Description:
By secondary structure, chain A is mostly helical. Chain A has helices at about 5-25, 45-55, 55-75, 80-85, 90-105, 110-135, 140-170; strands spanning about 30, 40. Chain A has a single domain (about 10-170), classed as Arp2/3 complex 21 kDa subunit ARPC3. Chain A has a two-stranded antiparallel sheet with strand order 1-2. Chain B is mainly alpha-helical. Chain B folds into 2 domains: about 20-165 and about 250-280, no CATH class; about 170-245, no CATH class. In chain B, strand 1 and strand 2 (about 110-115) form a beta hairpin. Chain B is globular. Chain B starts with 6 loop residues before the first helix and ends in a 5-residue tail after the last helix. The relative contact order of chain B is 0.16. The interface between A and B is large, with 51 and 55 residues.
Amino acid sequence: MKKTLTVRDIVIAGVLGAVAILLGVTRLGYIPVPTAAGNATIMHIPAIIGGIMQGPVVGLIVGAIFGISSFLNATVPLFKDPMVAILPRLFIGVVAWLVYVGLRRRNEYVAIAVSAFIGTLTNTVLVLVMAVIRNYFTVGVAWTVGITNGIPEAIVGTIITLAVVLAWKQIGKNQKSKISKDM
Amino acid sequence: MSSEFEISKRITIGQYVPTGSFIHRLDPRVKVFAFTILVLAIALNTSYIGNTIGLVLSLYLFWVSKIPIRYGLSGIIPAIPFIVILAVLQLLFQGQLFSHGKVYVDYGFILITSESIRLVVVSAVRFVEIIFLSSVLTLATSTTELTHSIQSLLSPLKKIKFPVHEISLITTIAIRFVPTFAIEMEKMMKAQASRGADFGTGGWWRIIQRTKETFPIIIPLFNIALSRAEDLILAMESRCYTPGGERSSYTTYQIAAKDYLALVTGLLFAILLFAYPFPI
């Protein structure tokens, strides 16, 4: 892990955090699914992208911003509990980064896709585990929600992350700043 | 139809209403601290009288800050259905946990006691109080002041190498860019719609269609965000911004007599709500 955050880390974390907040407040980040939990989400994707692009610390910070904004915007009691809304979200970017780094040598595309998939599942699984621990859901309900929400979420998350990161790698070949890498 | 695209108007984050009132002119560090302890005290208070005091206090603060009350109500009105549903559920099913009060209804699994009614009333009123208090704070404090004050309140954490300044800069960037991206998103939605794209016209059960509809917005949104980030990185680096460097601020805050007055008042109310044994 790097000792301090670079300018690039700070800015990317801030901007992806802004996207996460925006997806939440405009309700664009919610995909209506007819299950107990109500909505599938794509708001965790900035955290995954942050983790893949800038490493675990940025992924963690973006995840924290996503968690806090979902806690503040929550209209259901489940997400008005910081233990459910914030804590699990910290791990999304970190897990995505671990998977990405592990698979990157084999194949870049596969690494991005798999890390997006696993990153999304991290969100789903940890939120549901916390929901069960804090007595909002029973185990059966959690399984149903996990399958009906988690799988579509993971597929959508993979598609979007792949599209964004690959498009970015193309543009990013000529990053405007020439000194970012040295700092 | 076009109102669906007016995203930037519906976002209330960092909404600052400059009325220049007493509350606006307080030191932001004092303001954030006083509001935090008040919210904590209200969250822990379970008495009717205590919550009435809290409600009156939060309405009074709205009046002092000269902010129209509709700004506070706009945070509550969309939540009313949820408050009602939650209240009904609590009333019907939480009685078992609060069976020590006076029993009013005991019918099968439904048990309504004075304590479960207290739970319902207090949690609804508490929600309103907290919304009012947090709206006064965010409507009377600009985002810059808020991040400055959070940074200075967290600064003791620097001792354990916690990157306080960096975190507060990230927060500032995030909050600053939300309206910008909202405007970009509005442009994109209009552009895509003028090319014949559909948004939100499919029924809620057509999950795949609804999901596909979001792709032409979400993917360009990320790309715009990241190219904005590149510009900002370049701008910051060309101004020789170094993370972790010791830096001073253009605005420095000085705690004056009125700030002490506000702090002491806030503390007194918090202690009163937290510690005083209210009869009901």
